[in-house]
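ERR on first pass: missing label on line 2. Operator R.T. fixed the label and resubmitted. Corrected input:
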Amino acid sequence: MPASDTIVALSTPAGESAIAVIRLSGCACPELGQSILGRQSGLKARHAYFGIYLDIKGKRIDDCVVTLYEAGKSFTGEAMLEIAPHGNPLIVQKIMEDLMARGCRPAEPGEFTRTAFMNGKMDLSQAEAVSDLIRARSDKSIEVAQRQLHGSVGRKMSELTDRLLSVMAHLEAYIDFPEEDLPDENQSGPAMDLRKLINEINELIETQHYSALLHEGIKTLIVGEPNVGKSSLINALTGSDRSIVSDIPGTTRDYVSAFLMIGPWRIEILDTAGLHEAVDVIEQLGINHTIEQAETADFFLLMLDSSGDSPTLPAELLARTTAENTIVVENKIDLTGSVSHDAFMPDFKHARVSLLEREGISELRQQWQASIEAGLKQPNADGVVVNARHAAALGDARDALELAADKLKNLELSELVAADLRDAVEFIGRVVGKVDNERMLDSLFKQFCIGK
Amino acid sequence: MSGGLKFGPNQPYDVIICGAGHAGCEAALAASRLGADVLMLTGNLDTIAQMSCNPAIGGQAKGHMVREIDALGGEMAINADTTAIQFRLLNASKGPAVQAPRAQCDKKAYQYRMKHVLELQDNLDLFQAMVQGLIYEDGRVVGVSTNLDVEFYAKSVVVTTGTFLRGLMHVGKNKNEGGRMGDFSAKGLSGSFLEAGIELERLKTGTPARILGSSIDFTNLEEQLGDEEPTLFAFYDTREEQDLFHVEHFGQEKLGWAPGEKQVSCWMTYTGEKTREVVQDNLHLSAMYSGEIEGTGPRYCPSIEDKFVRFSDKDRHMLFLEPEGRNTNEWYINGLSTSLPFEVQLDLLRSIDGLEKVHMLRPAYAVEYDFAPPTQLFPSLESKKVENLFFAGQINGTSGYEEAAGQGLIAGVNAVQKVRGGEPLILKRHEAYLGVLIDDLVTKGTNEPYRMFSSRAEHRLLFNHPSAELRLVEHSDRLQLIDGQRVAKIKAKSEKILSWVDRLEVERTRGESYALHLRRSRSQEDFPDELKTETREVRDEVHYRVVFKGYLERELKQIEKMRHIDHIRLPEGFDFGKVKGLRSESAEKLKKIAPLTLGQASRISGVNPADISILMVFLEAASRK
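pass 2 clean. output:
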């Protein structure tokens, strides 16, 4: 059997490890499994075989565990092979070279998942979930990706589609069966159903921010005048000495980034150059850079020295801050001259801390998490969260439904309303696959007794 | 008629039509009107164009198809207009796209006139003989054998055998072989198809009882009158008077009624208080509920048993009493299909308001029959398995006279095109209901007797019935399906409409353009006086195009977006298995249907947009090599 259609990739990270896993998918897998172990008979599927990897010339390479998965019952839907040798990069390289010599080809990035999708092992939203799952950096992110992998988005879309088809069926019944003994044509039911659908779709669309923040992390900028303790705050939050801390103002000229968790949220925190009237060109560059970073930031910690005056910050920066995405952190409350700065940005939440005394930090964390979650649409009880692609398709569907709802309200001809609904069904279908008109007809004949 | 009947292998016809129902008639007329040498075989010359079920033509989406048939030179429209006894425009309260003409026809007059049209047709031979088998040669069909042991030969054959293939009728436990009460069952032909590898499956349909009109008590029934101004099926503004002969007056003189005159009424009634009881007590005796019937029945035409079982919360069901003609007292009960036994049917009928003392003329029955799943056909309706063999009508799994006639016309044209080496007539989904019909059949197949619904057409807003002639004139002109004079008239009408549409955009009334004003008022009352004097066809079409301009443009834009994939052809015999990355489920479906274009592939159920993208990439890569 030619191995040309069989792809191979190292599935564990490159580098030294106890074991490495090399994964193959394609029709040559059963034969390859037998031949690399030098066995007379084929491998039984889903059994782990311990043996010695023999290269194409019969030379021993390493001990390994080999498992075969039969076509139709594997991740990709094709026959698959997993080879687990010791995690020595040299051994891995030899095995990979040998598999190429036997006709396999290296997999392209994402090709295993793509193959699984192509073979109907998962719908598009599930395939997307695989990459989310691999990149997930928080428990919550893993949970959401896993739920999607098990079809939560597909099920939700299917449910929405059924409800939409039921509204369509209601309109179509009066168009296609004018001579039937149907209840009086009354559009208030469909209009109400549409309104509910629109609201629900809007809620789903909003979860995209949740999902984006969850999977991509929340980019947070610490801003403030020089020497208010920005770098110390990062160190206090991450428990390391990542930023160079000194009492010479303007020590942080370039931005420094660190990662930390606030509740389920993965935070990428950026330390910035102190914002004040720059004394040299390099500092000015740093300040410009901060303003640039602020453009794409999700969250701000605005720091000040509570023993000093309230800061004056660049207008470009303040324009990006709101009561929802910013916490004013008043540092150095241990100093004798410290006063409350409530009057500064009075609408914003304020946290009072002493980084030196390690005071107020856990309160800051709580306030921070509350702040993130307050502005965020949480997923419903069903836990369905959509990504940007889903949200775009749902947005188009929502717009079409709004048009339909307006027409219904204005008692417009029902075939014109139906045209908008048809568009909406098509848009929803983009998330997980197209919807056939037969499904609408099924709904119609279930709802109405047709039969002149 | 032609020079005389030809039989035996040395005198082949161009086309043989097997069957003389609604599909067969249109197929025979289309082929012979194109100048081909045609033979039509039927088991019974007295049942040509018989309306085996409801004596009515048209209705939602169906009425549209009849007008399309007329635009393509078919006969059904004129035949219905000149034999109709009641006209009604359905959905008159809705927009023009979904308004549909319907007519109650005189069942016998309809048949007589159609038979006479066939008799008068040049190049067409009629002969009464039952086709029992097909004669094959090298994977092609070359002729047919009959029950008279006479063989007829042809370059192409169109099969339109309706429900007659191994037809089996049920009245309770009583079973009779036949495709229609009183007629035979064609048994040999099924074997002939199987021999050629053509798969057959079973479907089920039914028809209600017929009753004697003089035994109906109309006192408490609701009368349903015809429209005062009838909406006719055929386009009279673009053709000559002599086409319009009437069954009672062939030749010069006009006798009898003109279309729309002397209409008769239908009547509405309801199932009575006892009806439910009769049905429920005897459910076990119904052929459908006792497991006697295997075939799948239509969802849109349930039996009365089904209605009471599936919609148990509904107290009563509406029924229509419809006369079958002017010269008969036989009436049809619309909405009362059943396969209950004879004596239960009597109780059932007598439980209905107005039918307390009814006399039954024929019982209701269910009929099971073979059909050839239409995914075995090319969009030309030619079999993929046997060359030169075409299928049309109920044998393709459809239901309805209009669906049958439309397919018959297309199959007749394409049988001739095949013989002559011309391009087949394939209507697009955005051109006509007939395009939707055939594309659905050959691409998706069907599990129940397929009936057209307007919702099946994505672009039905473009299918307002008066536009049929305008939509299809390019085809009818190119293939010469209608005469040059009529083509010229249609094109002149089209130009007139376009010019009016433009004029209304610029000419002003009450401080704004006519177009803007009309979009609000939607009333032809607000037309300029000059436009009010145009024909109804012109007025209606101008009105529709001006008032609904935005919607129509949106449809056209969507069609434009899809157009490119409908133009990407898949080579014949294309191996879907070798397309890397195609989901295996899709590859299998594609292999089975063997679509001719990427557009057709995209409509196969179970084939997803992702599959189409993959195919597109593959075809593009292949074309670059």
